Amino acid sequence: MDRSGFDRIPYAWYRDEALYRLEIERIFEGETWSFLGLEAEIPNAGDFRRTVIGEAPVLFNRAEDGRVHAFVNRCSHRGALIQRENFGNVAAHVCLYHSWTYDLAGDLVAIPHRHGVGGSPGMPDDFDMACHGLRKLRVDRVNGVLFATFSETVEPLRDYLGPTHVAHLERLFRGPVRVLGYQRQAVRGNWKAYLENVRDHYHGALLHGFQSTFGINRSTHDCGSRMDPKRRHSLLFVRQPPEEYEDAPPPALDPGPPLPLAEAAEGARLALQDPRLLHFAREFDDDRSTTMCSIFPNSTFQQIRNALAARQIRPRGPGAFDLVFTIFGYRDDSAEMTAHRLRQANMAGPAGYVSLEDAEALEACQSGHRAGGDGNSVVEMGGRGPIRDGDEKLDDVMIRGFWSYYCEIMGLDPREG
Amino acid sequence: MDAALRLRVEALIAEASAALDNEDYQAWLDLFHDESAYRIVPLENLRQGLPGSVMLCETKKALSDRIVSLLRANTYNPHSARRITGPPRITASGDPIEAETPYALYQTDVEGVSRLFAVGCYRDTIGSFGGALRFVDRTVVLDSFAIPTLLAKPV
To answer: What is the DSSP pairing of strand A34-38 with strand A145-149?
Structure first.
């Protein structure tokens, strides 16, 4: 298709209920792969975790043979949630209501009183257990990152991601990882606005005052945007010049009192009193200090210096979504490196120095869009022409890339509103 | 522990709440010892034994950096905050003192609409320095680990 244009997006697309239902059907339950979780979250047989894909409650676990299975977290009997805890270890999944029992592959293995009891006839003779398993999703992975799909026909995961994004995930998940914690955020905005946000090179230094205030945003830094052939995924990166990184976590800080606030907060350019926050210990075979990789439709993988996280987007209607951050490091990190990652986790997330404004901006957009009537957003920084990879700081071309694929999968044309 | 010491612990915690509610951040910082730590931890991480926080200030300098960024750099939802705390439960009464205090934190927006922002407890380690009680460590447990919108100010 023509990958140019897509520079005007109707506000109605961020608030329309019917369109949202269609998005769940065509995108989240359609021909896409969604981020499920990390292998490291379920290391042992019987380990399970709850998650959400689109609006579907999903359960994933590791079976006795080590395989990972994912299924809709809904009993085939009356439709109750089969697991109500977020994580745990079980031999089988047993519904609370009538104790229908499923094995770790999601197959129905036991129904109490199936053959009757005390003269009651039980289930009909032709009731077929094999037809009443949990709704299974297909699962595939790149290194330790698990993806799942409802589709039987979508292309294989690696083809779906494309070589650039496979290579990036292999870089970020270069070895076995260790989950360090979770952060969750409930945003009153549209999920697509979040996918725009992580493709938006333009807003960083303008919205996030931390960078300019503390003098860490230098326009001379090399950066770039990389998309897949269908422009549905994005990769945004910033390079760090060699004189600005180290090969080890920072040394201990001299203790002692901070400056009085009035003094510390004075002047145009401020300095951190605990500068370890910004220390970049180079750990990849390149000099990219920030990378933001967004895989359509529900995930973003973050590297902000040494702060690593997977972000999952869980839409909740057109006007709200939840964001779940899974913070991780590597299993072979030193204690100092783990401490440094936990320190740098301050950079992102719901309280992130360079991210907390995003939710406020998205909510301000949603409030504006909800006002009703016509109107459209303008996406022209970097031009209206062909949607191509670039090495520009100030562009939002990848946002147009996102919309070009969104329109393709949804069968929409923004010019028709 | 004796009633006088309990009153002093309660006073310290009340002063900390009032300083944040009133946005008197210097007064709040003054309640921390020069070598102290502050963190906000989602309950789900504690339950799983995971070390991740949503805010981690390992030093008082880092805590001051947070406040400077809040005052000078960050943009957030305009609101006022109000903390309701229950009586502290003193879990160790030596030196240091340890106390656990339940809180509810409400935010009120510019239209005057209040909503519950977070509920949880403060787990405080408190030392006595020159006769004054100061926080040596304040860990804010966030029962409400699904944070509405964003978290800019200390809890």
So the answer is: antiparallel
- What is the pLDDT, as a whole number, of residue A218? 61
Q: Is B58 close to A274, i.e. CB distance below 8 A?
A: yes
Mutate to test the interface with A, among B44, B72, B140, B141 (most CBs of A within 10 A): B72
Please name the residue of chain B whose CA is at the shortest distance from the CA of residue A348.
B54
* Cut 0.90: pTM above it: yes
Residue of chain A minimizing CA distance to B30: A260
Average pLDDT in chain A: 93
Span A324-360, pLDDT tens digits:
999 999 999 999 999 999 999 999 999 999 999 999 9
Alpha helices (H) along A24-176: 157-161, 163-172
To 10 degrees, the CA torsion angle through A252, A254, A260, A265? Answer: -40
Residue type, B5: L
What residues 29-68 of chain B have any CB closer than 8 A to a CB of chain A?
Answer: 29, 34-35, 40, 42, 44-45, 48, 50-65, 67-68
Strands B97-109 and B89-93 come out as antiparallel
CA–CA dist A399, A18 (Å, integer):
23
Residue of B nearest to A87 (CA): B48
Q: What is the third-level CATH fold of A36-113+123-153?
A: Rieske Iron-sulfur Protein (2.102.10)
Is there a contact between A185 and B150 if contact means CB atoms under 8 Å apart? yes
Q: How many A/B residue pairs have CB atoms within 8 Å?
A: 150
Task: Give the ranges where B22-151 is alpha helix by DSSP (H).
Answer: 25-29, 43-47, 60-72
ipTM of the complex as predicted: 0.96
A207 — contact with chain B (CB < 8 Å)? yes
Boundaries of every domain in chain B: 3-142
Assign domain B3-142 one CATH number from 3.40.50.2000, 3.30.70.100, 2.60.40.10, 3.10.450.50.
Answer: 3.10.450.50
Residue A150 vs residues A154, A156, A316: alpha-carbon distances, Å: 9, 13, 19
- Is the Cβ pair A185, B34 closer than 8 Å? no
